[in-house]
Structure formats: C-alpha cells, structure tokens
Amino acid sequence: MGEYIKTETSDNTALVTISREKALNALNRGVLEELKTVFEGLSEDHAVRSVIVTGAGDKAFVAGADIAAMAQMSPEEAGRFAQLGHQAMSAVQNCRKPVLAAVNGFALGGGLELALSCDFIYASEKAKFGLPEVGLGLYPGFGGTQRLSRAIGPNRARELIFTGRMIGANEALAWGIVNRLAPPESLMDAVLETARDINQKGPVAVSLAKQVINEGKDESLQRGLDLERDIFPKCFESEDLKEGLAAFLEKRKPSFKGQ
Ligand code: CAA
Question: Do strands 99-103 and 5-10 pair parallel, antiparallel, or not at all (unpaired)?
C-alpha cells in the first residue's frame, strides 16, 4: 500500500483511490510516481479485469497538479515534472485493462487530465471540470492540450483552456467529456455495475479492443481498419474465444479465464 494511493481488488475490479485529501488529492511527484507504478502493476495482474480510479473524500477527484510544489520549480524541474506526469497518464491510458474514472468532485487541471487518460468517465452530478492553468500562468502540461482536443474537438477545448472556466457535470455530459452522471451517493454503484458487466466478458477480447481503439484513434480510418484486421486473429489464439463460442453453441454462460 503506497503513501498516496490505495488499491483494493474485489471481484476482479481494482479500485484505485488517490488519497491526499487535505490537498484535494493534488498530484505531487510522489502521487505521480505511485500512479505510474500502480498502473504498470495492474496492467499485468491476472486477478484484475477492470480498474476504477477515484479521489478520496467527497469534495475532489483531483484538484490538479500540486501548486505549492510547482511554486518551487525551476524550468528544468518543471520539464521533469511534466515528463513524470506524462509517464503516469500514459501508464493509465496504456493499462491493458479498461480504466473507468469515477469523478466524485473537482476534476481540475491534472485531475481532468487524469480522467481523460481513462477509457471513459462517470461523474457525480456535483462534479466540476476545468483546465484552470492559464489563471496560474501556465498551461495544461499532463496531456490536457492534446487529450481534451481529441475528446471534445479543438474549438471547445480552446474555450476551456483559454478561459480556464469551470463547467458543471451537465455541461460536461453535453460536451461528451462524461459518459454518465449519477447522484453522488450512487456514483460508485453505477461505476461498479459497469465494471461488473465488463468483467463478465472475454478479458483477452476486451483488452485487444482497447489496444486497437487506442492505437487507431489518431490514425487515418484506413490505417485504423488495417490495425483492426491485423490484430483480430489474436482473439483466435485465446482459450477465451474457444470458451465463448462453445458456450454460445451449448446455450450456457461462458466462463472466461482471461487467457
Ligand atoms: N495543489 C495544491 N494544493 C491544493 C490544490 C492544488 N492543485 N488544490 C487545492 N489545494 C489545497 C488548498 O491549498 C487547501 O490547502 P490548505 O487547507 O492547506 O490551505 C486545500 O487543498 C483545500 O482547498 P481550498 O481551501 O482551496 O478549497 P475550496 O473549496 O475553497 O476550493 C478549489 C476548491 C476550487 C478546487 C480550489 O482548491 C482550487 O482552485 N484549487 C486549484 C485548482 C487548480 O488551479 N488546478 C490546476 C493546477 S495546475 C495543473 O494541474 C498543471 C498541469 O496541468 C500539469
């Protein structure tokens, strides 16, 4: 168990909680290093079929990169901080398991960048989203300029980044940042239910689908389709595929082993 990140696995779902509540779960070097290590481990963990990321407490998912820490940084140190931030966000994005963000409060700056590194986002109706960095004299440095533009289009991303405006959960839903909203007290149930649905499916197929979506999304349609076709046969190398097809033909529920 790390200093800043708690991980509990139950019924094949790992719950990762950023636990630095007194600073609204802000991302300092320690949190980022732990985040990277935890996600590299979960990626290879056979007991885990899906991952949920949330923030400790009922106020914040993550309120951004640690402002007090950045106040002490030279440009060289800031470059290394951004590099570590990128490594942590990439570890989340490239985790072989689906990663669901449960945004339970403020998701600002590095917090929104973390949520955008997940596969999709469910949020509390009270959540707030934004990239307020320009108000501090910097710009989003953990992937926000790129991931937000790709998620909601460059025009809306420019508006959020240039104004630093915070938006509420309904606007985030309308803009396509969030997939689903829930009352604060039932957010975790909603995310867990979706994780359970995913866990019932063939883990090899889910993981390969994530890989193809991620590798193809910034390519031309043709290159993405080529990737889909090239990786498709890998499903046929798995025990899961044999089990899934046999279960269908035998009119029973499949029992996938994730291999
Ligand atoms: N870094 C460090 N500490 C933070 C923090 C952050 N990003 N956000 C909040 N905190 C700390 C506060 O300093 C405060 O600490 P103390 O109790 O020791 O004073 C504690 O968390 C509680 O915060 P507030 O008292 O400010 O709570 P509030 O309810 O009045 O306001 C808030 C909540 C609107 C989220 C406000 O805390 C806020 O604006 N936080 C900063 C948000 C922000 O600008 N994030 C972007 C950071 S830059 C970034 O992320 C760069 C990047 O992309 C790499």
Answer: unpaired
